[in-house]
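User: My instructor asked us to take a sequence, write out its structure as tokens, and then describe one feature of it. I'm not sure where to start. Here is the sequence I was given:
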Amino acid sequence: MKETLSIISAGPLPEDPAQALQEEGGEAAEASELRLFCIDAALHGQRLDRALAVLVPEFSRSYLQQLVEAGAVQLQGRTVRKPSTAVRAGERGSVELRPTPQSQAFRPEPMALEVVHEDAHLLVIDKPAGLVVHPAPGHWSGTLLNGLLARDGAAARLPRAGIVHRLDRDTSGLMVVARTREAMEALVRMIAAREVTRQYIALGHGRWSGPAARQVDAPIGRDPRNRLRMAVVDPRQHAGKPARTLIESLGGTDELCLVRCTLETGRTHQIRVHMASIGHPLVGDEVYGGRPVDGLARQALHAWQLAFVHPVTGEAMRWRRPPPADLAALLRSRGLDYNRT
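Assistant: Let's start with the prediction itself. The structure tokens for your sequence are:
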């Protein structure tokens, strides 16, 4: 016997906020919904979270686990907070489908954005270090996506508010964001076809040796020893994707090397991983073996140049932005010039 009854309904809460925005062009619902249920014989002995996934199939198991842990589920009149609790046939209960931080992540939040270029089809912004681009665990608010939704109501009608590529939280510099579906689809194709030039200024540890320009062609995947990091991997043994970076020396000292990196692919943490793999981890990038220098405790990486043919007008466009104050000060103190050709 399966019984599901909606007592208070204000419309379903989206399991996937991005999908909700894409399909409905709106924000995640904010009201709660109470569901009553009865455990039937087929679910006897199952974990509570698994039973709920059957009884409330329109929501993900991970979302339902969050609700259990938050005290939103009752069984036989008592609150149950362990998703692993075994259920018995005939037990009755309720689940309050509350908005979670994830379900509320896709909402407008006004913030100051440095816009380098704007037209009817796209934006180019200079992202500051410290700004997360897209909501994720630990960062469900205060992201660039939230700022884009507040800046332009039409952004809610686009997947990911028009974001077509990302920069790591502590990487600064230029990003392009679509404002129309036409531009977004074209930019995604252009990035995949390597028709968008993205150049970075990076400061690594150690004196540069060897040729002034070095092509690093090394697949990147999850580090098999630490799943929270990425690493250069052997695809015959571990899952990985092709990754190519052109790295050019711009000068250096006995302790540091300044380089210009041109992405030919766009893998997670690509420059950080490739620089570490050739013995020059980025200054401040403690995840990949770097360390702070003169107070710069975030990775010394700045997206300084962006160039492409406008996806709608066909105009050739290019932007450059100097490094932010913290990185610029460190370069000056070591007599390093990122404008060197």
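For the description part of your assignment, you could build on this observation: Residues 115-333 form a domain with the Pseudouridine synthase fold (CATH 3.30.2350.10). Try explaining in your own words what that tells you about the chain.
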